[in-house]
Amino acid sequence: MRLGINGWRIHGHRTGVGRYLLNTVKCWSPEFTRGTFDDIRFYSHLPLDRGEIPVPEAIRHTQLGPAMRMLFWENLRLGPTVDDDVLFCPSFSRPRVTRAKTVVTVYEATLALYPQYFPRNHFFARPEIYVPIYRWSAQNATLVLTTTQAAKNDIMKAFGVPAERIRTAQLAPAPEFVPIRDEAALRSIREKYFSADVPFFLFVGKLTPRRNVPMLMEAFARIKEKHRLPHKLLVAGMNTTGIDLAGLAKSLGISQHFVHTGYVPNEDLLLLYNASDCFVLPYSYEALSLTTMEAQAVGVPVITTDVPGLRETTGGHALLLREAAVEPLAEAMLRIAEDRQLHRELSETGLEFVKQFTWERTARATLDTLWEAANL
């Protein structure tokens, strides 16, 4: 049996899908995959530097040029070319035409269920374009793979996929996300980003509307104005929607206390999680969150919203907001900053909860699903 992998997302800045894909295939050594596929092929549009992208040597790489956007490449190059028994498609969609059975990872159906949370002026979040593609792909995949029960429920509701064709492989923080007690290193990373050794709230993720970064900034401004907190706010993530963060910070009076940085390399991100006083994720809706798991894995308390996916992802070991709004968010941030017993409890219980999730477990569940599809 031969397995093909759509590896387009593994190149460039690895956020989301790229991190999931790499952390999964890194586990697929010959020993790990023994008894399943005889041949695993990794397809992408660019050369594969295994020094930078540590895909196991036993997984053969095939470059299918030319380089083009994923949906075009997937349909014009990947689908018509592969002759594998199963094609693993880790990014919501599968080719329209392929001889292989397909397993598609669908992380969520938020774009279909809550299109109001996505920017209308952003081509790559247009529900009228992408929802039909994702729905067709889910409905026509041999099996659908997802990451939480909340996501499974959403996929059934939004795309009409029956429960018996959906499998779950829960994600995990990467192994390098561990508690760091090196105070010199933590002080150094604070000074790098703030030019001072100060406590700070941390947000990590793309600045899409449902992630409510302006709301976070307003809540932060409110507690800075009313209380003598030494904290700063760091927002780490690509500003994909063009929010005028500097202008907003100025209008809120927090310019001296707010830092935005784009994509952060893993070595900095690990230290930033560890050096932060609290991780804040005020999503309006989310079916899963890898960043909350990363924060819990280093022992940092989490503030997020009480929606099914985030409650499931954190195990409830977070300060859960009754709604994504300025007032409850400001109250939660102030509470975490001042109540050190609560801070310690959430740190300890979150860290213990997330220990059950590993990429070996994710990789095994993913491989089992692919092998099941091969034998259907």
Descriptive overview:
With 376 residues, this protein is an alpha/beta fold. It folds into 2 domains: 2-172 and 358-374, Glycogen Phosphorylase B (Rossmann fold, 3-Layer(aba) Sandwich), CATH 3.40.50; 183-354, Glycogen Phosphorylase B (Rossmann fold, 3-Layer(aba) Sandwich). It has 15 helices and 13 strands. It has a 7-stranded parallel β-sheet, sandwiched between helices. Helix 7 (183-194) packs across helix 10 and helix 8 (213-226) packs parallel to helix 9 (245-252). It starts with a strand and ends with a helix. 43% of the residues are buried.
Tags for this entry?
alpha/beta; globular; Rossmann fold; 376 residues; 2 domains; 7-stranded parallel β-sheet; 6-stranded parallel β-sheet; 15 helices
Give a topology summary.
Elements: E1 2-6, H1 17-25, H2 30-33, E2 39-44, E3 60-63, H3 70-81, E4 86-89, E5 101-105, H4 110-113, H5 127-140, E6 143-146, H6 149-159, E7 166-168, H7 183-194, E8 200-204, H8 213-226, E9 232-236, H9 245-252, E10 258-261, H10 266-275, E11 278-281, H11 290-297, E12 302-305, H12 308-314, E13 319-321, H13 326-338, H14 340-354, H15 359-374
Parallel strand pairs: 1-2, 1-4, 2-3, 4-5, 5-6, 6-7, 8-9, 8-11, 9-10, 11-12, 12-13
Helix pairs in contact: 7-10, 8-9, 8-13
